[in-house]
Design goal:
Strand order of the largest sheet: 1-4-3-2-5-6
Structural class: alpha/beta
Oligomer: single chain
CATH architecture of the largest domain: 3-Layer(aba) Sandwich
CATH topology of the largest domain: Rossmann fold
Number of strands: 9
Helix content: 25-40%
Shape: globular
Order of helices and strands: EHEHEHEHHHEHEHHEEE
């Protein structure tokens, strides 16, 4: 595996790559969710590039930028084991040089749900992904479905700016108890992890209620709440059912292609998850 630690090394190494290119952007602290993206890229593309960059612009005041899990040596070992072709380890000055001009892309979706609770978060995500795409110039980018709102926003950006890259959305990877894998799971206590595992139980109950014929938003939402650990109900930031194509909230009656999104707090840690509500 080649490693580029700045833009000059990246350009040199990219010039020597033959064939098409799949790209997996990460913030490191790699887990099986990231590995699934890498393996998906390897199946479809001749070469796979992974970036590790903890992006400061997507963290708000008081968030966990400074303590975000970082383990570069372990991440490098994981990537070598999975035969990644190229690792890009940029500094902030590589991603955001002094002459960097932010792109102009806005969407109402950036201010809803996660965007409402984390002002400016998606603006930072948009900027870093656009910048990484312009540096790596991949043929495909691999993103996880766990961050469903982020996936939708980045897909809109790529489409509206007509960027020459295809988005590949990959399934959520879970622990054996159903908890969606996340680097932030490292913050959870053992008791938190047990309680957090009931989030998926609630999502499955909501999906079962929907598939049984219930189309009422309140009824399906109640199925979720009734199935999670009662102690975490007070910590719910949101439970929202949206149309998958438009991310418009369902208004009373759920259509046949919807998505339930949830966010729950465990101390200062917020976990997000979702499930498709399809017939």
């Amino acid at each position: 595996m080649e490693i580029a630690k700045n833009n000059f090394e990246l350009n040199d190494l990219l010039q020597n790559i033959n064939g098409n290119l799949g790209f997996v952007p990460t913030m490191g602290s790699l887990h099986e969710g990231h590995i699934s993206l890498i393996e998906s890229s390897k199946k479809l593309f001749d070469n796979t590039v992974v970036s590790i960059f903890v992006n400061p612009t997507q963290f708000g005041p008081g968030e966990d930028f400074e303590k975000y899990p970082r383990n570069e040596n372990n991440d490098i070992a994981v990537l070598k084991r999975h035969k990644v072709d190229l690792l890009y380890l940029p500094s902030a000055s590589d991603v955001y040089p002094n002459d960097y001009a932010p792109i102009s892309f806005t969407s109402p979706l950036t201010n809803k749900l996660e965007g409402a609770l984390r002002p400016g978060h998606f603006d930072g995500v948009i900027q870093v992904v656009y910048r990484l795409l312009s540096l790596v110039n991949p043929d495909g980018i691999f993103l996880g479905k766990k961050d469903a709102q982020q996936l939708k926003i980045l897909s809109l950006m790529i489409d509206q700016l007509t960027l020459p890259v295809k988005v590949h959305a990959c399934e959520i990877i879970r622990e054996n108890n159903g908890l969606a894998l996340s680097s932030r799971n490292a913050y959870l206590s053992k008791n938190d992890k047990v309680s957090a595992s009931t989030i998926y139980k609630g999502l499955l109950s909501a999906k079962a209620e929907f598939r049984s014929g219930s189309l009422d938003t309140e009824v399906v939402t109640a199925a979720f709440i009734d199935s999670i650990d009662p102690s975490i109900i007070k910590n719910i930031d949101y439970v929202s059912i949206v149309d998958q194509a438009t991310f418009t909230p369902t208004n009373g009656s759920i259509n046949s292609d919807a998505l339930m999104l949830v966010a729950v707090r465990f101390g200062s840690t917020r976990l997000i998850d979702n499930i498709e509500l399809t017939i």
